[in-house]
Design a protein that fits this description.
Layout (H helix, E strand, L loop, with lengths): L3 H21 L29 H12 L21 H13 L10 H18 L6 E5 L2 H16 L3 H5 L7 E6 L4 H9 L7 E4 L9 H13 L3 E8 L11 H10 L3 E5 L24 E4 L1 H4 L7 E5 L2 H8 L30 H36 L3 E3 L7 E6 L7 H17 L6 E5 L2 E7 L7 H22 L1
């Protein structure tokens, strides 16, 4: 495809396909149920020697690729956390792809840098974060957490590790709860701190980090000659959306001069609702904060909003300017390649700008409140059904529950029963839920957060859960 006319023809065709896809997405099985290797076996072992037609490409997309896709944009997707999209986000992403801009520096596309600055200021105000926070878009919360730990490492060693390595440095310690995301462990490994120096703090019955246990661990480490470096607090853990007690954790971190990073990857979007801002009580003691608009704010992956109090420490951790990237303007503009790990940067701010403007703050708030209301309905149905039980507080729009018939008491039997139920639910193709384990209990997770989910979708999902649970129980006996 080398000519604009041909591109125009197929671009129009693809836009029609995308619009039809969104309109008819409920007709697809939510979860792909193909067998391992099914797609691979249909792809030739070698690349084609000669050009192939766009018609052939699109036909193979329909035949080979589409059956192997799990439809994350289906309103019947309740698994994991969402990777939401929306009509305005897709439009913004299309323009981003067309521009093909590499936005590493202000000079390489001034509008990309300045739009990112403006949109991050919007997000800071929308979420009620302090004005002294400065924002930058990272690719994911995992990267943002790594940035936070690296910045803490450099700030507290006066940037010596970047220059000289770990020689003559005390062993550093990082703290998080036993329910914290696996990205924390990955970050301490990449940062050279070592997974054995990640101290996992016990949680209470609501799966929140216990502050007294955190302080106890810090005191023990100091007495043993370690250097407490960073604590990662979770506002909305992955398994259950538990909210760590930020104010108490902040007081402890301030007392011992420890960097406090907040991972609010999913639940941070709820901060656009004033009634949810109780979760950031104590935010004034936080050094860095991340949440993902690509989860619950209708924006295509990847778009992670990272806010930091000490911008200078962040930049000094990552800044490296070879001669071919030097500019006479660097003192007057932000070069976001110096604000994180990547040199090359996509124009992520464009789709976020489209989404915020297209929905408006009121429109976004309305959607989130609906999702929280729908989750509250599911919790009510579970509370009223003697065969089901809630396994964690419903803080936002994630419901953690299990099927527990009165006649079954053995925990291993209950775990197998609920594992069977999960398989049967997902096999229907009519909904997709995922699982976790809480206190050793096999737990079904139903997160109600897809952009276009409606009350009827949730009602229908609950009916399927009830029907399948009875079938699974009869077969289990």
């Amino acid at each position: 495809m080398e000519h604009a006319d041909e591109f125009r023809k197929y671009a129009h065709k693809l836009v029609d396909w995308i619009a039809d896809y969104f309109e008819n997405i409920e007709k697809y099985p939510v979860k792909s149920n193909i067998e391992p290797g099914d797609v691979f076996r249909q792809i030739p072992a070698s690349a084609p020697e000669e050009p192939e037609s766009t018609d052939e490409l699109l036909a193979d997309f329909e035949k080979i690729i589409l059956p192997g896709i799990t439809h994350w944009q289906s309103p019947n997707f309740y698994a994991y956390f969402p990777a939401n999209s929306s009509y305005p986000s897709v439009l913004g992403e299309m323009l981003t792809a067309a521009l093909g801009a590499q936005c590493m520096k202000w000079e390489t596309s001034p509008a990309a840098t300045e739009l990112e600055e403006a949109v991050m200021n919007w997000l800071r105000k929308m979420t009620g974060l302090p004005e002294y926070f400065t924002g930058v878009i990272q690719d994911s919360a995992s990267t943002a957490t790594l940035c936070a730990i690296l910045t803490a490492r450099e700030k507290f060693t006066s940037f010596h590790v970047n220059h000289d390595g770990f020689d003559r440095q005390p062993v550093m310690r990082v703290y998080c709860s036993t329910e914290a995301h696996s990205s924390v462990e990955k970050a301490v490994k990449i940062a050279g701190i070592g997974k054995t120096n990640l101290v996992k703090i016990p949680v209470d019955d609501a799966y929140r980090l216990i502050p007294e246990k955190l302080e106890e661990a810090i005191i023990n480490d100091i007495q043993s000659g370690y250097r407490p470096l960073c604590t990662v607090a979770a506002l909305g853990t992955t398994s259950s959306t538990a909210v760590d007690p930020l104010e108490e954790i902040g007081l402890i971190c301030s007392k011992y001069n420890i960097w406090l990073h907040v991972d609010a990857a999913f639940a941070g979007s709820a901060l656009i609702l004033p009634e949810c801002r109780w979760i950031i009580t104590g935010i004034e003691r936080v050094d860095s904060f991340v949440f993902n608009p690509h989860k619950w704010l209708f924006t295509n992956f990847d778009c992670s909003a990272y806010f930091v109090k000490d911008t200078e420490a962040l930049i000094n951790t990552f800044k490296l300017v070879p001669e071919y990237l030097k500019s006479q303007l660097h003192e007057h503009v932000n070069d976001f390649s110096n604000w994180g790990i990547q040199l090359g940067r996509r124009f992520r701010a464009l789709k976020l700008w489209f989404v915020i403007r297209a929905f408006g703050l009121n429109g976004m708030q309305k959607r989130l409140r609906e999702h929280i209301l729908f989750a509250g309905n599911v919790k009510k149905w579970i509370d009223q059904d003697q065969n089901f039980e809630i396994l964690a507080p419903v803080n936002f729009n994630l419901v953690c529950f299990r099927f527990h018939p009165e006649a079954i008491h053995d925990e291993e039997d209950l775990n197998r029963l609920n594992e069977n139920l999960l398989k049967e639910l997902n096999r229907t193709g009519k909904l997709y839920v995922s699982h976790t384990k809480l206190a050793g209990k096999y737990t079904l997770r139903m997160v109600i957060a897809q952009t276009y989910v409606k009350e009827q979708h949730v009602n229908d999902a609950w009916k399927i859960i009830c029907e399948k649970s009875e079938e699974v129980y009869q077969n289990f006996k």
